[in-house]
């Protein structure tokens, strides 16, 4: 019971502190990091307090401390799964899929006919439940990481394609005329003007695709996998009611997902430093 | 109508490619069968055979069409083999989850636009929550809720809601902040309260943003429902149909379930689009 009271008191105190911080120092840089961090910490403490205070069985919801213990105890398994699912499955599929989408976008950009035909279909396919093809691709490419990579390729292809085509069309007539007065060839125009101009759009698609890639790789493992991998581990650990291990896998997935997203966002910052959205904010 | 010809051309090209791939992928089986029986097969026989296998590697488009037609029209609607039945199970969970997610997204957005503390503390976590491959925990949510005695529609709806709340949240925050200073100042000169500003200015001006994100959200919640139906021995719904098809090698069944899901997604997006047009027209916001 004391846990419960402590958690609730902590929650109220943190909430008051956050409100005060937001009012008094909301514009300052350190507050922008501290406030979300405090909010996250509050949720963890509230979670811990509720689980311990209300005696919730770990089979239903393990406390963060139990998850941390399980995480520390099974780092070997987690690393193996991370390599299998994230590095082999998701990352290779992501690179192939995004690369293919960019190349196809450049190709169809030369033909307005193809653009008009492919874009509506690409938009439509991007909204479809593409994870559904996972069982088919697992059947075709076998149980190992190749089938996961294939699912990821299909999942990331269309969002990136649609964004890249939109990006290649993002130059205005004035800019194109300028390139024409320089008597730039098609390729010069492409590399010096249109590809850089397409980068903000491309990275928009790439960022959406990071999450899709992880989802695709993990969900594809539900349809069959070797005896490792995050999706495999999650489904078997749920079967054994080893929920702390499941949550550890989720933590790994969350860290990998955030890290992956952060990496792409960092590259975006380096590549599109000229774009208004990236310029230093006051 | 400039769009129709190119789209049809591309569709035709896809179907031609598909037939080609069917022959290529399925011919192996035909050759194996013929070699086992000690026969030679001519190319035309191979082509005919690849189009009509019972468990092809890649079913031909017409096989999928037949499977789809039989699933939709060839069964009683209550039959376990009817795609309408499974589609309805999926649709009901999708709509429940979509409603939950939209409600949550709008509520959070209202909170975020009105409280600076909430903006600073919730928004980064809402964004972070989307970099987490949340679908991966779908089976766990289902199992945990089942152990609490909650089964059926609600667990699936929760996952669908989780996927659909984020686009709505982001769109609504943007929309509720869309009114510019001139408009806000005008309401201030009218001595409007916070509530009046919300109902008469912020909410109406957020509608275009809301509908744009509703379209993304409804597609996302369908994906969530289908994935939620995959694990934990679900026997009903399009996702379960996909899974049982993959267990028993019924490729035609997988593809028809897939196309049924695609059609469902298209219908949902179109319905939201129609509601959007009607609403915006009545509000006088159609461009």
UniProtKB/TrEMBL annotation, chain A:
Membrane topology designation: Multi-pass membrane protein
A Pfam family of this chain: BPD_transp_1
InterPro entries the UniProt entry points to: MetI-like, MetI-like_sf
UniProt keyword Membrane present: yes
Subcellular localization(s) per the UniProt record: Cell membrane
Domain ABC transmembrane type-1, first and last residues per copy: 83-272
Alphabetic keyword roster: Cell membrane, Membrane, Transmembrane, Transmembrane helix, Transport
Segments passing through the bilayer: 34-52, 90-108, 120-143, 149-170, 201-225, 245-267
Family per similarity comment: Belongs to the binding-protein-dependent transport system permease family.
The name this protein goes by in its record: ABC transporter permease
High-level lineage: Bacteria, Pseudomonadati, Pseudomonadota, Alphaproteobacteria, Rhodobacterales
From TrEMBL, chain B:
Subcellular location, record wording: Cell membrane
Domain ABC transmembrane type-1: 87-276
InterPro entries in UniProt: MetI-like, MetI-like_sf
PANTHER family: ABC TRANSPORTER PERMEASE PROTEIN HI_0355-RELATED, ALKANE SULFONATE ABC TRANSPORTER-RELATED, MEMBRANE SUBUNIT
Transmembrane segments: 7-25, 88-110, 122-147, 153-173, 209-234, 254-275
Protein name: ABC transporter permease
PROSITE patterns: ABC_TM1
Keyword Transport among UniProt keywords: yes
Membrane topology per record: Multi-pass membrane protein
Entry coiled-coil feature ranges: none
Pfam families (alphabetical): BPD_transp_1
Annotated keywords: Cell membrane, Membrane, Transmembrane, Transmembrane helix, Transport
Family statement: Belongs to the binding-protein-dependent transport system permease family.
Record has Cell cycle as a keyword: no
Gene3D superfamilies: MetI-like (1.10.3720.10)
């Amino acid at each position: 019971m004391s846990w419960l009271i402590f958690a609730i008191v902590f929650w109220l105190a943190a909430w008051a502190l956050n409100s005060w911080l937001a009012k008094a120092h909301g514009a300052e840089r350190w507050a922008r990091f501290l406030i979300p961090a405090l909010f996250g910490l509050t949720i963890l403490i509230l979670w811990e307090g509720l689980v311990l205070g209300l005696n919730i069985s770990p089979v239903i919801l393990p406390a963060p401390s139990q998850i941390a213990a399980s995480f520390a105890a099974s780092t070997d398994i987690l690393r193996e799964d991370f390599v299998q699912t994230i590095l082999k499955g998701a990352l290779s599929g992501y690179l192939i899929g995004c690369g293919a989408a960019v190349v196809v976008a450049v190709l169809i950009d030369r033909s307005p006919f193809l653009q008009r035909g492919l874009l509506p279909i690409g938009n439509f396919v991007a909204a479809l439940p593409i994870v559904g093809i996972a069982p088919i691709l697992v059947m075709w490419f076998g149980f190992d990481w190749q089938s996961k990579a294939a699912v990821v390729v299909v999942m990331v292809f269309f969002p990136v394609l649609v964004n890249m085509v939109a990006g290649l069309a993002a130059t205005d007539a004035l800019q194109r005329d300028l390139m024409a007065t320089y008597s730039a060839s098609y390729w010069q125009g492409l590399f010096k003007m249109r590809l850089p101009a397409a980068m903000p759009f491309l990275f928009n698609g790439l960022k959406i695709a990071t999450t899709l890639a992880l989802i695709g790789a993990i969900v594809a493992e539900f349809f069959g996998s070797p005896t490792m991998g995050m999706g495999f581990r999650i489904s078997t650990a749920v079967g054994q009611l080893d929920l702390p291990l499941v949550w550890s896998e989720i933590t790994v997935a969350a860290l990998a997902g955030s890290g992956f997203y952060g990496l792409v966002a960092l590259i975006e910052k380096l590549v599109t430093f000229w774009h208004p959205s990236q310029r230093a904010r006051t | 109508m400039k769009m129709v010809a190119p789209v049809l051309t591309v569709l035709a090209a896809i179907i031609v490619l598909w037939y080609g791939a069917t022959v290529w992928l399925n011919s192996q089986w035909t050759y194996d069968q013929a070699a086992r029986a000690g026969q030679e097969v001519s190319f035309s026989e191979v082509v005919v055979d690849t189009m009509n296998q019972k468990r092809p590697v890649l079913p031909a488009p017409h096989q999928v069409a037949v499977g789809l037609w039989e699933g939709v029209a060839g069964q009683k609607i209550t039959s376990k083999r009817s795609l309408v039945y499974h589609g309805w199970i999926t649709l009901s969970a999708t709509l429940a989850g979509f409603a939950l997610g939209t409600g949550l997204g709008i509520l959070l957005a209202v909170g975020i636009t009105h409280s600076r503390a909430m903006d600073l503390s919730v928004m980064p976590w809402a964004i972070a929550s989307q970099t987490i491959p949340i679908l991966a925990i779908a089976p766990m949510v289902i199992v945990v809720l089942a152990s609490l005695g909650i089964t059926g529609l609600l667990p699936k709806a929760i996952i669908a809601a989780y996927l659909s709340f984020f686009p709505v949240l982001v769109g609504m925050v943007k929309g509720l902040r869309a009114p510019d200073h001139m408009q806000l100042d005008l309401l201030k000169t009218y001595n409007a309260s916070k509530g009046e500003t919300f109902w008469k200015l912020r909410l109406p001006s957020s509608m275009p943003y809301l509908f744009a994100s509703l379209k993304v959200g409804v597609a996302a919640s369908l994906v969530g429902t289908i994935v939620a139906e995959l694990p934990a021995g679900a026997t009903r719904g399009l996702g379960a149909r996909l899974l049982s098809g993959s267990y028993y090698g019924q490729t035609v069944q997988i593809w028809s379930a897939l196309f049924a899901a695609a059609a469902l997604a298209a219908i949902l997006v179109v319905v939201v689009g129609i509601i959007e047009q009607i609403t915006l027209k009545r509000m006088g916001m159609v461009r």
